[in-house]
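Our working data are protein records whose layout never changes between entries. Instead of coordinates, the fold is spelled out as a row of discrete tokens. Here is such a record, shown just as it appears in the course material:
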Amino acid sequence: MLTNEEKNINENNQEVDEKTSKSLSQSEEVEEAKENKETIDDKLAKTISNENDKQKDEVEEEEPPLPIDSDYLIEFENYRKKFLKFYKIQRYLQWAVAAVALIIIIFASIGSALWDFDLSVIISMYVISLVIFIAYSVIMRVVLNKKMKKYFIEYYNLTYKYITEGYTYDDFLVDAHKKIETIDFLESDVYQNIVNVGSRALVSFKYDDLPIFMCDAAGSVKYEKRLIPVFVGKYFRAPASYDLETKTIIYLKGDARSIPPTKVDDLNVSYEDDRMIIYSSDKNYQKFFNSKCKKTFLELKPNKDLIDAFVCLKNGKLYAGLGYDDSLMVLPLQNAIEVRPLKQFKHDIDVMLRLIRLLNK
């Protein structure tokens, strides 16, 4: 469960919220998935019902947090503590200002009864109390929003320095507040009936001279009058040598939290085992996604942090997603930054980029 502070920060920096959903006019029902497969509604229902039982079903015992062994993460941790201190102080000040304004109003009300205050004095006291409260709220909102934006910048800049440490990624640029267009996610063509796309922290860089774009993204569908995310994680876009007429989707299976691709009605199940499934209607897909690609892709191993993964190849482009739990996707505030999910992502991005390189040969 997120704390109020964490919700406030994320609501100011994400598109996936109630205000965004109200502005969308699409409300079509989710169509049936491939024959003999669960419908997306069934899968969503199971995901929701399993949400509270997730902790009970875990076999592994809770591991102690890993020590913070990076100067970049230590720097962010110091910044987090400073920001949290400011955040708490301004909350206390807000209550104090509200209390002062209320005392003035009460004093004016009592004065009118006991000391026969003039009406103009009473109105002036009411106005003063209101001005004090509104002025403080407006000023503090501006200051807090500015500090929130800086907090996001510090988080992404420092954590990506940690993620890329020891690797060679050219022209690595991070913009914590830059988003992708909705069409950029819909082009992945993996999930159907997406009605809302939220994103943040657009990253661009080159890997072996290949232009790579990556960001935090969430794609949601409408389910029983509310939005349910079918994908939350790191979203990639890159070139690929794939030139077949139909798309090919490779999916790494996860646990009850995961939702497999749903836009596969026009594809065949070309390969499936207990770990992955490949949807394609072209027998020549193996020319591009060969055994070496398969072996590299399977280096991704779902766990408590990595939920699942997909790669979609079409029209000379590659779209990929690494689905992650809140441990990576929710910025830390009340608690110290977790090293484990960052280490997981550091491993996974290396695997994904090596796969992208293979798919461009």
